[in-house]
Design goal:
Layout (H helix, E strand, L loop, with lengths): L1 H17 L7 E2 L3 H11 L2 E7 L4 H10 L3 H10 E7 L4 H8 L7 E5 L5 E6 L4 H10 L7 H7 L7 H12 L6 H9 L9 H4 L1
Parallel strand pairs: 1-3, 2-3
Antiparallel strand pairs: 2-4, 4-5
Helix pairs in contact: 4-6, 8-9
């Protein structure tokens, strides 16, 4: 009985180890060529903005980017680039997109404009949901950036924009000041504002 149990466990372990065999296909060309490919294929570019020392970056590369479902989804919907932000072309890309923490997951169009961005490691389910968010303009980072001036008097809009900025390690102090300028004195101690 023990031999059967051990054999069954080994077989299941082997199946688990080898069940995931696809991974995101990352382009290994210049950023200029990657943008040209995105324009030609009418796709957004997903950029894994990483560093060699970043633990969550390594976990994403090992566990999320190699998941079959993730690989199929991202290979179908995006032109994918994995760029070390501390080497070569990555240094200028980090400056261009104001990358301040890692991993920074950027979605840009073929002209190089930011569409969506977040920072931090995530599960396979969260990562696919992130890709799906790029299909809904109102959920994308660029929506808040483009519409901020028109919505400066809308405290809910500003609160969402602050959350979007902080989810990608961008400075929010000016926007926080704008938000609190709209709050009535009695609302300053509300749970939402306190948080």
């Amino acid at each position: 009985m023990k031999l059967k149990l051990i054999t069954g466990t080994l077989v299941l372990s082997s199946v688990t180890l080898f069940a995931q065999h696809r991974s995101i296909t990352f382009e290994h060309t210049s950023f200029k060529e990657i943008k040209a490919k995105a324009l030609k294929e009418n796709k957004l570019i997903f950029i894994d903005a990483y560093t060699s020392w970043c633990g969550p970056c390594k976990r994403m590369a090992r566990e999320v980017f190699t998941n079959d479902t993730v690989a199929d989804y991202y290979n179908k919907n995006f032109v994918n680039a994995k760029i070390d932000m501390e080497k070569g072309e990555g240094i200028d890309i980090a400056k261009q997109y104001d990358v301040r923490c890692y991993p920074n997951l950027l979605f840009v169009d073929g002209n190089g404009n930011i569409v969506h961005r977040v920072a931090g490691g995530m599960s396979t389910k969260e990562f696919i949901a992130l890709g799906e968010e790029t299909k809904t303009p109102e959920k994308c980072f660029s929506y808040y950036t483009k519409n901020y001036e028109a919505n400066k008097q809308n405290s809910d809009f500003i609160a969402n924009y602050i959350a979007a900025r902080e989810n990608t390690c961008l400075e929010s102090e000016n926007f926080i000041n704008d938000y609190f300028a709209l709050q009535a004195r009695k609302d300053l101690i509300s749970k939402k504002n306190w948080n």
